[in-house]
Amino acid sequence: MAVAIFLAILFLLLGAGVWIGLSLIGVAWIGMEMFTPRPAGDAMAIAVFGSLSSWTLTALPLFIWMGEILFRSKLSEDMFRALAPWMGRVPGRLLQTNVIGCAIFAAISGSSAATCATIGKMTLPELKKRGYPDGIAIGSLAGSGTLGLLIPPSIIMIVYGVSADVSIARLFIAGVIPGIMLALLFGGYVAWWAWRNPSLVPKDDFADLDFMAKLKQSGGLIPTVLLIVAVLGSIYAGIATATESAAIGVVGALVLSAVQGSLTRENFVAALLGATRTTTMIMLILAGSAFLTIAMGFTGLPRDLALWVKEQNFSPLMLIAALTVFFVILGCFLDGISMVVLTMAVLLPMVQAAGFDLVWFGIFIVLVVEMAQITPPVGFNLFVLQGMTGRNIFWIAKVSLPFFFLMVVAVALIVAFPGLATWLPSQMLGR
Question: If DSSP codes are grouped into helix, strand and coil, which group holds residue 235?
Answer without folding.
Answer: helix
